[in-house]
């Protein structure tokens, strides 16, 4: 028997939620999407949640909402998934790679600050494998240099720094791909506390419309379906229990593995172990 690296859990509650949406006739960008946006934002302590079709479009929409484009540089870690860089390229900006911290595998604040140039517009740390990056330091660096703080939180659902959840400092993007700590089969979410950024995000993901057929900006079809949102709502309810189980599994390994360097855990940080990587 093979043990898969990741296996999504879809239970009876998720199936019934999908059937209820199908019976309702409201299938795309409807009440379930709005409910999921509110629930996910409330869970993380953010003011706004804006759902998208997947984690990559969440990253792209976040870039567009901040008017990041040609001529701009965005500092990102040299060790991450492809979408961290491709979303920067997709809006016409230039990704600038900076080194990672050897303990956390996340972007090094020192390396990021050293990479700042007059063309730098944003810094985007990645909360890699469920370990939060040093966001308080990145927040200070961005404020010092007048830069935008983006968070690639695709792997960090519910991770915390102190009493505050990752994804609530800058504009943060999450993914609900099947391998993530919670899934919606696909889908993404952008969290922000900025009213104007949230307004722009909602237009960008819906063909640039704020009102029907009134196109204020160039937008795209980044919409989430209510089928996806219905699954996401159920999975969000399961997330705290799954996180505790992942952390218990990690403790078990940490106590027994002796020949490798086990995942580093920063004091006052909560690791959600999207992957247990050593």
Outline the structure in words.
The structure is a single chain. This protein is an alpha/beta fold and 278 residues long. The chain has a single domain (27-270), classed as 3-Layer(aba) Sandwich (Aspartate Aminotransferase, domain 2), CATH 3.40.640. It has eight helices and twelve strands. The protein has helices at 12-24, 31-44, 55-65, 83-90, 109-114, 135-145, 195-204, 226-256; strands spanning 48-52, 73-77, 94-98, 120-123, 148-152, 160-161, 164-165, 171-175, 188-192, 209-211, 214-215, 269-270. The strands form three sheets. The chain has a seven-stranded mixed β-sheet with strand order 1-9-8-5-4-2-3, with helices on both faces. The protein has a three-stranded antiparallel β-sheet with strand order 7-6-12, with no helix packed on it. A hairpin with a 2-residue loop joins strand 10 and strand 11 (214-215). Helix 2 (31-44) runs parallel beside helix 8 and helix 3 packs across helix 7. The longest helix has 31 residues, at 226-256. It is globular, with a radius of gyration of 19 Å. 46% of the residues are buried.
Residue-averaged pLDDT? 96
**Sequence of secondary-structure elements:** HHEHEHEHEHEEEEEHEEHE
Instruction: Report the helical percentage.
Output: 25-40%
CATH hierarchy, class: Alpha Beta
Q: Approximately how much beta-strand content do the residues carry?
A: 15-25%
At the fold tier of CATH, the topology name is Aspartate Aminotransferase, domain 2
Radius of gyration: 19 Å
- Output the number of helix runs: 8
CATH architecture: 3-Layer(aba) Sandwich
| Morphology | globular
Into how many domains do the coordinates divide? 1
Query: Oligomer, anyone?
Result: single chain
